[in-house]
Structure formats: structure tokens, C-alpha cells
Amino acid sequence: MSGTDLKSPEQLSVNWHQRALDLRPDGRALIDGRRVDAVSGDTFACHSPVDGRLLTQVARGQAADIDAAVRSARAAFEDGRWSKQPPAARKRALQRFAGLILAAQEELALLETLDMGKPIQYSLAVDVPAAARCIAWYGEAIDKLYDEVAPTPATALALITREPMGVVGAIVPWNYPMIMAAWKLGPALAAGNSVVLKPSEKSPLTALRLAELALQAGIPEGVFNVVPGYGHEAGEALALHMDVDAIGFTGSTRVGRRMLGYAGESNLKRVFNELGGKSAFVVFDDHEDLDQAARAVAGAMFFNQGESCNAPSRLLVQDSIADAVIDAVVGQTPRYQPGDPLAPQTTMGALVDEGQLQTVLRYIEAGRSEGANCLIGGARAREASGGYYVEPTVFDGVRNDMTIAREEIFGPVLSVIRFKDEAEAIALANDSSYGLQASVWSSHIDRAHRVARALKAGTVHVNQYDEDDITVPFGGVKQSGNGRDKSLHAFDKYTELKTTWIRLSV
Ligand code: NAD
User: Fold this and answer.
1) Amino acid 56: pLDDT
2) What residue's CA is closest to ligand 1, atom 14?
3) Distance from Cα 290 to the centre of ligand 1, integer Å
4) Is the four-CA dihedral 89, 95, 100, 103 of positive or negative sign?
């Protein structure tokens, strides 16, 4: 996810406040091609973190709703209405789906901003186009993938084919609701699976709308179902379901552990975990442009209010340049002051809810009480709005064993740790239970390569942090998970390899 290529505020002429008042989001589940209430009739309230106001009531899906969705998905898979369509036909439907997402760009962007608090300019210019591109890319890919013939003796032919798994459960978080859903839906649907998506209870609205657009695009009923609800109810029921073949999970490491447990307790379904991070951004004194490094770390850290799994939340900086780099980073913070998410020029919005606000404030307090030095920020902002905002915050004097260096905060809080040499930098960067992403800044190609190789992370950036594309895999090592979203590699998660031996007369 990147903050580049954003539409400028001048290009946004919509009156978002008026549009927000006119919006009537539908919080019912979408199962078997229809909008339905939860079987129990229960709902939960969906409030906006922008100002705390009620957006709508959302169906509180539980085991019975998940079961109905899985049955529908299974029936669709077995009768082949999607799974047996020629790849070129699935491609056309997915491309129509992507086109409809783009056509609904303003509505989806507004829903995303109201539901989870990010600035409208980013919902519009990052989240919606990225979700559409992901769906279109997997659609485009699916009729270009070939299976294999093994190099066996002439007495037999062995075909190695990729087959869809069946019913895929997708469980996603709230920080990039549409993009996370698209990263699961794109490859899973293109490969011919049926999907039951459980969005986060904190941001369910765009997922529900996406399912309507998929139907409109001609993706048959039952192929893509969405059941909103709480993790311990709908999420658990989906992960424990005996007729779900795979779970694509994105979320916290804490819940990722549970996913593995649920699979063990039920049908040993495949589990692919995309989890948290505490990414290191390592700046050496031989980098030729320290201001560029400072801009990059601030931009990536404060984008999406710091609620990014790959946020570079540990800035490791060499002693000799530390003061200069820290000054430059602090100098960037006025660019990221929290503002009204519906105002086109706002660059940092609201945290997702009161709970997340309190979590972030607790971490800030832990940083102070453990002896780190809060250089800037560190407080709630815009309280009178009724929403949940925190100032961009920078701590100096952090040791890698402090809570704010070890735990994922998921808010706009940067911890600066100083190091003396390359060996110490590598040791500090790798001394984390996470391994999602890392970055090394050095103008010496030998050092840049050496350190990039030594860093234990799913993705390492050299002298930048922003590059991102649907063509490259995204995922982590260690407790950041095991799956890979994006790129052709994502098909590995949603297909089974099948071997077929055919005897030949010679
Ligand atoms: P979370 O783990 O609390 O929730 C994620 C999803 O799991 C939600 O839909 C939730 O309802 C569901 N869930 C919660 N408890 C469950 C249970 N017991 N059984 C089944 N489902 C359950 O995470 P979150 O707070 O929504 O999201 C933030 C986390 O997501 C962060 O740790 C962040 O790093 C991670 N994340 C990772 C990536 C990645 O690609 N690696 C991307 C985005 C976010």
C-alpha cells in the first residue's frame, strides 16, 4: 500500500459532508445472492470513528449464518456454476467486477472513510483503485496459467494440475478493509473457488457493497457471500466449520494463533496467516540524503494513522547522524496533523474506534513510564469532534527491550533506537518476534546488499519504503505469518496440486 499517486485536493470537488448525510448503508449480510438479516435477528451498531455518529445497524452473523453461507458456497462450487466456467469466462466477470468497483469509486471511498476513519483523499486514490486493480489483475491472469506434464518414463503420462480448493473462508481486519478483502477474493475467485468473507466488525460496510457489485458483474449467487459479525462468533464459526477447505486470514498474531487451533480442532483446513509487524527502518551514516530517509519514514509511519501492518515503527539510526535524522523526522510531523477525514486536504484521519484510541494512548504512556523521551505528539487530538484522533508521536531514547519497541501499537507512534555499527543494526532489527518488512538506507551498494540479505523479513526495501505492486508477493516470516498475498504466488494458497497418472501403451 502506498501513499503515492494520490489525487490532489483540487481534483476532489465532491461535498463529502453532504454525501455522508445522504448515505444509507445496508448492514444486512449477503448470502446466496440475497441481502438477509441474521438468523437470530440480532444486529450491532456501526459507529463512525470520524465523529462517533451511528452509521447503521449491521447483521450480527453467528454460527447459523455462517453455516447458511458455507452451504450456499458449497452448492455453488459443486454444481460448477463458477468453478467449472472456462477461465476466460471467469476473467470477463472479474473484469466487470473491477470496472463496477471503479464506477462506484466515490461511494466506496466515502463508506471506507466513514467506517474506519482514513482520509477521503486516500480512500479515493489508494484503496478503491488498489482493490479494483487486484480483482482485475487476477482475472487477467487466470487464462494465462498452464498446468504441467511431468518428465516421467514413456510408459505413463503424469499431469500435474491446479484445482480450486472448494470453499474458502476469508477473515480480514479493518485497516484496509477493501484492499484486504480484494487480496483474498482476487486469487480465490479467479481460481474457481467459492468464498465466504467475514469482514471486521469495525469496518463491515464496503465488503457488503463489494458483494453486491460482484453479483451485478455476473458472478453467480452463492459464489461470494459476506457474513458480518464479531470475531468470536462469526469468525470462529467460519474457522471451525467442517466444510470450509481453507482460511485466508489477515489480522493480529494473537488471532492468527487461534486460526491454527481452529483448524486442528476441526477438519485440518489450510490456514494462511498474514499477521502483525514491527518493521525496522535502518539508516546508516553513509546515506547521501538523510532528509529523504526522514521523509520516507514519516510518510510510511503516519500514513493510515499508523494503522498499517508494515508501518516502519522502529527507526534504527546510526549514532553519528541520529540527532540530524530525528530533527528531520520531527520536522515532518506538521504534515501529518489529524484533521477531518472528509476534508480533501487531510493527511491523517481518525483511529478506528475508542478501543484502539485507548490502546494507542496506553502504549504512549508505557513509552514514557519506561523512560523513553517523547519528542513530539503523545496526546489525543480533536476530541470535540466526537472521533478518535491521536497526534503523530515520536519517541527518542528507545531501547529495543521496551514495550513500544517490541509490541505492535497500530497507531501513529514511532520509536527511535540508536545503534553504533552494522552488526548492532542487524542484531537490533532482527531482535523482534515479527518479520514482515524492513528497510535499509545506505549509499554503499555492498552494505545495502549485505544488510538486506541479513534482515529477516518477508520484504526488504533499499533506500525507499514506498514501492508496492500487485505483481509482487506480500507477507511475513516469524510471527508475521506464513502466507503470501498478491502476485501469482497467491494462487498457491487457493489451489490444490493434483497428480493424474495415465498408463500409455508403448
Ligand atoms: P484482529 O486479529 O483482531 O481481527 C482480524 C479479523 O479476525 C477480524 O475480522 C476479527 O473479527 C476476526 N477475529 C477476531 N477474533 C477472532 C476469533 N477468535 N476467531 C475468528 N476470527 C476472529 O486484527 P485487527 O485488529 O482487525 O487488525 C489489525 C491487525 O491486522 C494488526 O496486527 C495488523 O498488523 C494485521 N494486518 C496484517 C496485514 C498483513 O498483510 N500481514 C495486513 C493488514 C493488517
Assistant:
1) 98
2) 231
3) 35
4) negative
Closest atom, ligand 1, to C-alpha of 254? 2
| CA nearest neighbour of 97 among 209, 5, 193 | 209
Confidence of residue 466 (pLDDT cuts 50, 70, 90): confident
Residue 6 has pLDDT above 80, yes or no: no
Residue 39 CB neighbour total at 10 angstroms: 18
> Residue-wise over 87-116: b if at least 16 C-beta within 10 A, else e?
beebbbbbbbbbebbeebbbebbbbbbbbb
Q: Could you give the C-alpha distances from 465 to 3, 134, 259, 425, in angstroms and in order? A: 11, 21, 30, 18
Is the model's pLDDT at 9 over the cut of 90?
no
Closest-CA residue, ligand 1 atom 19, reads: 236
Give yes or no: 274 in active site: yes
Alpha-helical runs (H) found in 231-280? 236-240, 253-265
Question: Is 276 touching ligand 1 by the criterion CB < 6 Å?
Answer: yes
Picking from 130, 128, 126, 150, the residue whose alpha carbon sits closest to that of residue 138 is: 130
Establish whether residue 435 lines the binding site of ligand 1, counting it when its CB lies within 6 angstroms of any ligand atom: no
Q: Is the CB of 275 under 6 A from ligand 1?
A: yes
pLDDT reading at 10 higher than 70: no
Compute the distance from residue 488 Cα to the ligand 1 centre, in Å: 24
For the segment 285-308, the average pLDDT, to the nearest whole number, is 98
| Confidence label for 11 from pLDDT (cuts 50, 70 and 90) | low
> How confident is the model at residue 4, as a pLDDT?
41
Question: Is the CB of 174 within 6 Å of ligand 1?
Answer: yes
pLDDT at 484: 96
Q: Is 467 one of the annotated active-site residues of the chain? A: no
DSSP string, 472-490: S-B--EETTBS--BSTGGG
Active-site entry in 112, 233, 274, 307: 274
